Amino acid sequence: MTYCVGLRLKNGLVMLADTRTNAGVDNIATFGKLHVFEKPGERVITLAASGNLAITQSVVNLVTEGFENPTNGKVESLYTVPSMFAAATLVGEAIRRVFTTYGETMKAQNVGFEVAMLLGGQIKGRELRLFQVYAAGNFIEATEDTPFLQVGEHKYGKPILDRAARYDIDLRDAVKLALVSMDSTLRSNLTVGLPMDLVVYRRDALKVDLKRRVTEDDPYFRGLREQWSTALREAYKHIPPPDWMA
Description:
Elements (H helix, E strand, L loop, with lengths): L2 E6 L3 E7 L1 E3 L5 E3 L3 E6 L3 E9 L1 H13 L1 E2 L6 E2 L7 H25 L6 E9 L5 E5 L5 E3 L6 E5 L5 H7 L6 H18 L7 E7 L5 E7 L4 H20 L8
Antiparallel strand pairs: 1-2, 1-12, 2-13, 3-4, 5-6, 6-9, 7-8, 9-10, 10-11, 13-14
Helix pairs in contact: 1-2, 3-4, 4-5
């Protein structure tokens, strides 16, 4: 399993993904799940992948190398699509192609076709957008009312996002929020693990602002984990007990 979160905000985009791949208690490996497609000055597109590693890698390879668009006959990739909507459509079509190739064989072997992806970024002259693409190839989009999307093991990290994620928060606060959300997931689910990959993009910059791998030894993340745990314990202690208990 994995956990990926994306926040599309007034000032930019924050994408965060863990790197653990778990095929059993004795088969754990590290694979990057956050991919960046960048042409400085022209486009920045990020793709975070959750699900079966063979499926997600096939999809990433397809959208990197490109394939023929059935509507216009042109070979398109995430480096050439004209809009983020077209990018989301391309990722959806790539997922369907992988299913056509492997879906029935996987079903015969009782292996589920599990894949979900977050696609965020901006192309010159277009709006900054963030999509969540499902296994069927369809997708939804983040809005100002709901500025974050998650895939993978999302339930542990969602409560903090529901309470604190707002469209107009600063990018630094958004990074902090994403890290707290990830920490909550790391503490509650062993199939999600460090290191994690972080990408920050500032609206209209058309180049990546920050790309960082956060490890167990990262001083800021260690401090954040300790401070968040302490703050939760202190907040719990200061809440008065129910007045209807003896």
